[in-house]
Write a structure and sequence with these properties.
- By secondary structure, this protein is of the alpha+beta class.
- It folds into two domains: about 180 residues, Protein Transport Mog1p, Chain A, CATH 3.40.1000; about 140 residues, no CATH class.
- The protein has nine helices and 15 strands.
- The longest helix has 21 residues.
- The chain is elongated and about 70 Å long.
- About 35% of the residues are buried.
């Protein structure tokens, strides 16, 4: 591990992630603004008009105007755009994915239904920083109707919601590029970049026996070193890069390598640990580590699109072999903190 990588291992009873950023005051308070609205915490500027879109209102969801939403309509009021900027806290791994699904859920609640959004990963490359994001598109009659896009940007989230009755898929992509060019999510990272020093919190479930704990720590170290070695610093400043398939694969290899190396030293190993190790070893021996991870994350990971994936074969095989191990059982949480 590189010398500048410091790990603070917090053995705590229960995995306590930093509270997810939220917009608890869902109605907010309208701010009367003449001319450009400048977000007081980040200096992001929201003009009265950009291109054909005219600003409709500025809503603050907290007293300090840290958490705001600014809406725009086109001239015919057929397309509504709302851009949100709000605090994200520390850069926990899984933060972006959690925030996207939470934001999608809020749309589903308002609509009174569960939307079958088409999801994909997106990436914004600014002058200084790189931001990763997730895009969800809900279609109606074969055309996009509702869109949500969330980027993690250091200690901030940048979210766009679009509701449209007129745009097709090509026009929608053009509009999203236009929005990101106008407001530039990477500028939010620039205001408060994350420090790549990693905090590691270990959950109570990892403390069941010493073999499991050792395997968990080995897994966390592999994940940290992969990010530190293979993801550029200006991307890590926006968020912990847990969207990469290969990173999760390396973490699982670390889990297994410790158990193989140290298994003979542990005489008291409970059944839960044995089942975890048995499942993972079977998955690896049959060449399904990548398929396992992709299945766990619904394919929402960064990996070569031309890579051959035997997902259906893996799913059938895992049922036959009674594979119960899953990555939703979090043994540890990795987090980047505030850049000092």
């Amino acid at each position: 591990m590189k010398q500048n990588l410091m790990i603070i291992l917090l053995l705590i009873f229960g995995l306590f992630a930093a509270p997810l950023a939220n917009q608890s005051n869902i109605y907010g308070k309208k701010i009367n603004v003449k001319g450009d609205y400048i977000h007081p915490k980040t200096s992001m500027t929201f003009p009265v008009q950009f291109d054909q879109y005219i600003r409709n209102e500025v809503i603050s969801f907290d007293k300090k105007q840290s958490n705001v939403g600014v809406s725009y309509y086109d001239l015919n009021k057929q397309t509504k755009i709302t851009v949100y900027v709000y605090p994200a806290g520390n850069g926990d791994d899984g933060r972006l994915r959690n925030e996207f699904y939470k934001s999608k859920l809020s749309i589903d609640v308002v609509a009174g239904t569960v939307s079958n959004a088409k999801t994909s990963l997106v990436r914004h490359i600014g002058k200084k920083y790189i931001c990763n994001g997730i895009l969800g598109v809900v279609e109606m009659n074969g055309k996009p109707n509702k869109v949500i896009e969330v980027y993690e940007c250091g200690r901030w989230f940048f979210k766009t919601r679009i509701t449209t009755n007129e745009l097709d898929s090509t026009s929608l992509q053009t509009l999203l590029l236009q929005i990101n060019k106008q407001f530039d999510p990477s500028k939010l990272t620039e205001t408060e970049p994350l420090d790549s020093t990693v905090n590691v919190s270990v959950s109570k479930s990892a403390l069941q026996d010493s073999l499991l704990l050792g395997a968990v720590i080995s897994s966390a170290i592999n994940k940290i070193e992969w990010a530190d070695s293979l993801v550029v610093k200006n991307e890590r400043a926006s968020g912990f890069p847990d969207l990469y398939l290969d990173q999760h694969v390396e973490a699982l290899k670390g889990f297994l390598s410790f158990s193989k190396r140290e298994d003979s030293h542990f005489t008291q190993v409970n059944d839960y640990t044995k089942k975890c190790l048995r499942d993972l070893q079977l998955i690896m021996d049959n060449g399904f580590l990548k398929e396992f991870v992709l299945d766990q994350f619904d394919l929402l990971l960064i990996y070569p699109q031309n890579e051959k994936v035997r997902l259906d074969e893996f799913r059938n095989w895992s049922i036959d072999k009674n594979i119960t191990f899953n990555l939703k059982q979090r043994f540890f949480l990795l987090s980047y903190g505030k850049n000092k």
